[in-house]
Amino acid sequence: MVRRTVLRSAFAFAATLLLSTGADALLFRAYVSSDGNDANPCTLPQPCRLLPAALTAVADGGEIWMLDSANYNTATVTIGKSVSILAVPGAVGSVVAIGGPAISITAASLTIALRNLVIVPLPASGATYGVHMTGASALTIEGSLIANLPSDGVRVIGTGKIEIANTIIRNNGGSAVFLQNGASADISGTKLLNNENGVVTFSITVTTTRATVSDTIISGGNEGVFSYAEIAGGVARIFVTRCTIQNTSYALGSETAGVGTALIAVSNSMITNNINAWYQSGAGSVIRTLGNNHLTDNATSLGSLTTASLQ
After folding, report:
1. Residues 124-137: pLDDT tens digits?
2. pLDDT of 84-142, one tens digit each?
3. Neighbours of 261 (CB within 10 A)
4. What is the pLDDT of residues 175-214, one digit of tens each?
5. Strand 300-302 relative to strand 276-281, pairing
6. Of the candidates 181, 168, 255, 179, which has an alpha carbon nearest to the alpha carbon of residue 212?
7. Cβ-based burial of 5 (10 A; exposed 0-12, middle 13-18, buried ≥19)
């Protein structure tokens, strides 16, 4: 209670940050806390309890602050406006997957940021994904933990864009990050640990699906990074630099159904202690090493590796 009081005093200036257009003005900054109430206006002195209430109260382009450690949802949180959602330093802002994804983004043209969150499933609840985005929006995930989901930690279908930085995604039953049909991702400074797969790009329509992975550790599971295309004109690419991929069945995987383009390009990285250093199969599939890679202590490999110089 003392900590909560200090936090509210420290942030008291923010209570005046309203979009001042009448009695029903939306907040630039809305607040939730473990002792809040959804009948409250979501201000600092009178915070709400759950994220849906705060999303209703906050203005497009605003912020939602979690003031202390608690779970802040009772069902899938659908985000339909541009917003930043963050837990204050030292707090565990939990969003739980219950009967579906923890967070769903279906609208287009939004700019959304998630910071310092913990996204986990409620056991035996029908949980699916941590974050599921099907809208053509831009999402940033920073300093968060996404863990123990029965399927993908982050799943993006369509032309949405995602940036993931300084985050841990671990022990998920699907891919840490799964991208399909035009999605793109930039992943940096992140740990992808003991997921079924690390980063996967799929193109099963005439789209380009792309990921860039830098300064990241991928450890455990089946595929470290994997690109797959199954239709003419479909392109799936992953670029890897300054990364470590270890203890997987297939560190680098590129496959097509005989049409399309699947590419893995890797530079300045350590590929070690995997069953297969790489797996390459199908016309149009390429695994390209750009130099300064250390492929060591892997049991074997399947298919061919293409050597290319850095430009």
Report:
1. 899 999 999 999 99
2. 999 999 999 999 999 999 999 999 999 999 999 999 999 989 999 999 999 999 999 99
3. 20
4. 999 999 999 999 999 999 999 999 999 999 999 999 999 9
5. parallel
6. 179
7. exposed
Residue 217 near residue 242, CB atoms below 8 Å: no
DSSP-assigned letters across all residues of the chain: -HHHHHHHHHTGGGGG-B--SSTTPPEEEEEE-TT--TTS---SSS-BSSHHHHHHHEEEEEEEEE-SSEE--SS-EE--S-EEEEEPTT--EEEEE-SS-SEEE--SS-EEEEESEEEEEPTTS----SEEE-SS-EEEEES-EEE--SS-SEEEESS-EEEEES-EEES-SSEEEEEESS-EEEEES-EEES-SEEEEEEE-SSSEEEEEEES-EEESSSEEEEEEE-STT-EEEEEEES-EEES-SEEEEEEESSSSEEEEEEES-EEES-SEEEEEESTTEEEEE-S--EEES--EEES--EE----
Give the predicted TM-score (pTM) of the model. Answer: 0.91
The structural domains of the chain, ordered by start, are 72-307 (2.160.20.10)
Which residue carries 């089946």 as its tokens? 222
Using CA atoms, how far apart are residues 227 and 200, in angstroms rounded to an integer? 6
SS3 for 119-167 is EEECCCCCCCCCEEECCCCEEEEECCEEECCCCCCEEEECCCEEEEECC
Answer yes or no: are the C-beta atoms of 225 and 238 closer than 8 Å.
yes
Residues recorded for the chain? 311
